[in-house]
Design brief:
The protein folds into three domains: about 110 residues, Immunoglobulin-like (Sandwich); about 80 residues, Immunoglobulin-like (Sandwich); about 120 residues, Sandwich (Jelly Rolls). The chain contains one helix and 27 strands. The N and C termini lie far apart (about 105 Å).
Length: about 350
């Protein structure tokens, strides 16, 4: 009887000890080894809020209950604990997040277009969480037209709203069609264009971004509508390669589309406009021509004024715009825009454009 009583007492004692320590792995733990953020980097739209969770882990990857602290909150963001994340009753009536937990969740709100960060600490460990505040595509300040002129041959300069910059491949389109992009400034703050003839609207811009977040590109518009003359003088092209104007160094222009010159390549063209240019640096040159109606235009290249080499097509089919890249050696060349068909409207284009990109 005494042995039975003694054994029972020992069993009760063991159960009491076991009840006091219900985590059989605790004696294997050595405290926090790391803090883990999910996600590790946060992207938040300005004016919006995203959530991030932080968990303390031991060396076995088990979460540990901790009190977390936020510090070093950078510019352009606010960080608060999410009071809706696993709240508990602190007493009979008060439902709130507990002072300690394996995981804290935070609300991060973007207030400025910046690259920022904040630090979360617990148990002697820190984790820095980078935050990229991206633009709200529906609320982009308009770009400013800083200079323009009444003609399609007058350059127009557009300035991006701070802190945005133009992508090197940015475009500007008006009611009369796309503008020719002459250049984007080295710092990306301005874009220089030739608006299409007859443009009478604000420009729609594609390809704006903030420097810290190039992937978050947005569209925009200019602050004012342009008023560009609808007609273009029949220049600088001529009907004869022998009198063709020299466009060396000219990156783009509009022409009034007279098409009074013969097609020297005898490929069936109804008329052409001729230009001359000199290549000083060998390399790949890209030619693009666009126009305002459904006529069929093509581009041709000759090595002399009589096109004795038979010429070379730089565009085929009825694509619009026409674009081609050719490798040229140093020398003088004659470039032509040829009218092959009037199109369904049966009329000449009111204008066409030419853009040349040198290597």
């Amino acid at each position: 009887m005494n042995r039975l009583t003694s054994g029972t007492a020992t069993l009760v004692a063991l159960l009491v000890v076991s009840g006091c320590n219900n985590d059989p792995t605790e004696n294997l733990r050595n405290g926090i080894t790391s803090l883990q953020a999910a996600p590790t980097t946060l992207s938040v739209v300005i004016g919006k809020t995203k959530k991030v969770q932080v968990t303390a882990l031991d060396e076995q990857g088990n979460p540990l209950e901790q009190a977390y602290e936020v510090s070093s909150v950078g510019p352009g963001i606010t960080v608060t604990r999410d009071s809706t994340f696993f709240p508990v009753f602190l007493n009979d009536t008060l439902l709130s997040v507990p002072p300690t937990a394996p995981t804290f969740q935070y609300n991060v709100t973007g207030t400025e277009l910046v690259a920022s960060s904040f630090v979360v600490s617990a148990g002697g460990k820190d984790v820095t969480i980078p935050v990229l505040v991206s633009p709200d595509a529906a609320n982009v300040p308009v770009a400013t037209v800083t200079s323009t002129g009444p003609n399609a041959s007058d350059q127009t300069v557009i300035t991006a709203p701070d802190p945005f910059v133009f992508d090197p491949g940015a475009t500007v389109t008006f009611d009369a069609g796309p503008a020719i992009v002459l250049s984007v400034s080295e710092d990306g703050k301005t874009i220089t264009i030739l608006p299409p003839p007859g443009a009478a609207s604000k420009g729609i811009i594609t390809g704006l971004f903030v420097p810290h977040f190039p992937a978050a590109q947005v569209s925009d518009s200019t602050d004012v509508a342009l008023a560009i003359n609808a007609t273009v003088p029949a220049q600088p092209g001529t009907d004869d390669p022998a009198t063709a104007p020299d466009i060396t160094g000219v990156s783009a222009f509009y022409d009034g589309a007279a098409f009074t010159g013969a097609d020297l390549t005898t490929d069936g063209g109804l008329g052409g406009q001729y230009y001359k240019f000199t290549v000083e640096t060998a390399g790949d040159y890209t030619f693009v021509t666009n126009w305002d109606n459904d006529a069929d235009l093509d581009m041709e290249l000759c090595r002399d004024a009589t096109c004795s080499d038979g010429g070379e097509f730089l565009g085929t089919g009825v694509d619009q715009p026409e674009e081609a890249t050719v490798t040229l050696e140093p020398g003088t060349y004659y470039f032509a825009v040829i009218l092959f068909d009037f199109g369904g409207s049966g009329t000449l284009p009111a204008w066409f454009s030419v853009a040349v990109t040198a290597p």
